[in-house]
Amino acid sequence: MKTIKTTRGLCTNCEKESEVELVVKKETFNVRGEPIAVDVEYSRCKECGDEVLNPAVNHDPFELAYREYRRKHALLQPEEITDWRKAHHLSQGEFARLLGIGIATLNRYENGSLQNESHEKLLRLAMDSSNLLKLIEKSEGIFSESRKKKILETLRESEEVSCSLDDTIMITFGGADRTNLNGFRKLDLSKLYNAVLFFSRGGVLKSKLNKLLFYADFKHFKEYALSITGLQYAHLPYGPVPDNYAMYYATLLSKGLVEFIEEFYPSGYVGEVIKTVKEPDLNVFTPSELRIMATVMEDFKGYNASQIQEFSHKEKGYQQTHDGEIIPYTYANELNY
Length: 337
What we know:
Layout: E1 2-10, E2 17-31, E3 34-45, E4 51-53, H1 61-72, H2 78-87, H3 92-99, H4 103-110, H5 117-126, H6 129-138, H7 145-159, H8 165-173, H9 189-199, E5 204-205, H10 206-224, E6 233-236, E7 239-242, H11 245-254, E8 258-264, E9 270-276, H12 287-299, H13 305-312, H14 316-319
Antiparallel strand pairs: 1-2, 2-3, 3-4, 5-9, 6-7, 8-9
């Protein structure tokens, strides 16, 4: 058991206001006959010793165990299914009928139930755009003719070769398998761009922004065994940074979503501030992702770029890697933060 911090609060058991410890326990759950160990956060009253799940975290321990099981067996996570379906403008009913499964079954998968092996394969096949195109072309009675025509037109357009910046990025960097180098999530540009917009509201030095993204992704991985953005982080002299970050920020600038402002210091140093032009779309994030991002923003609010850089240099993942190397997310379990 590890104590995270101590606060004051009202204990629901002894009904007294007392010191409450936030503690993390390693617990093991049986998932499909396999023991899965996860960290579970509790609030423990120092007055009576009663322990309850930390209400601020708002997650079910079994959900964490299922998530870890999916990670170990490379299964789709619920939000990956939901995000893909919504990105292709399909309702649950439409997608379920295309797959040939019940809408209740798909709804359970999107809400955290474990998919069986055959449905996992079916989902992965259908979540390939060319396969989806064929499914819709051959479908009967699922869509109205006008809707079917519109969906097919959109899919066919997306299948055409495009030279957009996003396509170039995904072709070059988005095809990596889900590993401990990207937090077991393929690069998600929508979440990456909106995370940058989230942290850049009001303006933030680029060097500090790089660390905020690092801590958000690694902290989410520490708690949920999945990164937020799918970014890889490289060991550079000024601390961990998103690999190829300059390209991502330049893309946001070209889209008119951020602006770059030079900031001059008495020492002669010129810093580059990134400032949000358009508000982030927070709907692309899950509740856990939003909570982690808000926590990171608040906890490092008083840090300047040099202070957060110095703080990041103490991370074991940074200390155990060399210049230019990618920092594995497995080091997230040993974050100082």
